[in-house]
Amino acid sequence: MSTIPTSVTEEQFNAHILPYLSTAKRGFVCQIPLYKVFNYILYRLHTGCQWRQLPIAPDPNDPKKRNQLAGGVLPLSQMERRRESGAGLAGQHSNGTGRP
Question: In the prediction, which pLDDT does 73 show?
Fold first, then answer.
């Protein structure tokens, strides 16, 4: 049995790990709690998965996502639904409509 933890609770993180971390005094503020970031790193080290395969829920306020949606990129969920329903993207424009 491994003695290396694969995840820690927020209380464990605050008691044993946070005192040894330096946090930014000004500037960037992480939107994800630090204990979750630490757990993602542990998961990555334990499983060896790629960073993009981490089970992180997408942030609806992410500026990149807003720009993609504003730029007419079809959301992934819509593409998946169309693929599953058998409806192809033929005749579809970048804004998701079928109009010319």
Answer: 59
